[in-house]
């Protein structure tokens, strides 16, 4: 019971709903601990490898210029593990630490999301329309140890750094380098 979407099979919403209904009715056990990255993403990767599930893109992003990024479940899993390693090793984050991401909806936004789930890091998303005052408030209220942004928004972040006493690392998503910032692409 699947349908074609851009030439690829995908699960119908009714299949997903029936899965959750079976948990609610006690037909399936609710796990004590749940991690989307390992319990879903990695499981679907294995099902595809074993030939028990047709290959589908896990992530498919297209911008207004028609540029695409398409990752399989295996690629998304591998990339999210690499980003989780960057967050824990290069940025020094641990399970329960907080990260603020102020990015437009670029592929790295979703990748950070999954990597944080995988590593147990609390992900605080922020819109790219935030002002310096908004950014400072979010950094102080969340007690974030890391911030992730792009070249365009980095100056606003830098303007509030003296007021963000918990921040330990700054990660930039983009092509260029910036003094005092780690570059995600280079670290990957």
UniProtKB/TrEMBL annotation:
GO terms for biological process: acyl-CoA metabolic process; fatty acid biosynthetic process. GO terms for cellular component: mitochondrial matrix. InterPro entries: AMP-dep_synth/lig_dom, ANL_N_sf, Mitochondrial_ACSM. SUPFAM superfamilies: Acetyl-CoA synthetase-like. It is an enzyme of class 6 (ligase). Residues 52-175 form the AMP-dependent synthetase/ligase domain. GO terms for molecular function: ATP binding; fatty-acyl-CoA synthase activity; medium-chain fatty acid-CoA ligase activity. Keywords: ATP-binding, Fatty acid metabolism, Ligase, Lipid metabolism, Nucleotide-binding. It comes from the Eukaryota. Its EC number is 6.2.1.2. It catalyses: a medium-chain fatty acid + ATP + CoA = a medium-chain fatty acyl-CoA + AMP + diphosphate. PANTHER family: ACYL-COENZYME A SYNTHETASE, ACYL-COENZYME A SYNTHETASE ACSM5, MITOCHONDRIAL. Belongs to the ATP-dependent AMP-binding enzyme family. This is medium-chain acyl-CoA ligase. It comes from Motacilla alba. The lineage of its organism: Eukaryota, Metazoa, Chordata, Craniata, Vertebrata. The gene is Acsm3_2.
């Amino acid at each position: 019971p699947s349908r074609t979407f851009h030439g690829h099979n995908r699960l119908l919403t009714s299949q997903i709903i029936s899965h959750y209904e079976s948990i609610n009715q006690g037909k399936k056990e609710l796990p004590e601990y749940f991690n989307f990255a390992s319990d879903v993403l990695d499981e679907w990767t294995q099902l595809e490898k074993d030939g028990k599930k047709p290959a589908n893109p896990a992530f498919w992003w297209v911008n207004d210029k028609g540029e695409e990024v398409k990752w399989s479940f295996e690629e998304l899993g591998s990339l999210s593990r690499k980003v989780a390693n960057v967050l824990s090793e290069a940025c020094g984050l641990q399970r329960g630490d907080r990260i603020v991401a102020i990015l437009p909806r670029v592929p790295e936004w979703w990748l950070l999301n999954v990597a944080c789930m995988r590593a147990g890091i609390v992900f605080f998303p922020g819109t790219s329309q935030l002002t310096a005052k908004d950014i400072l408030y979010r950094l102080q209220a969340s007690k974030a140890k890391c911030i992730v942004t792009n070249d365009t928004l980095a100056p606003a972040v830098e303007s509030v750094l003296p007021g963000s006493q918990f921040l330990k690392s700054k990660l930039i998503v983009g092509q260029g380098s910036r003094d005092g910032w780690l570059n995600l692409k280079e670290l990957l």
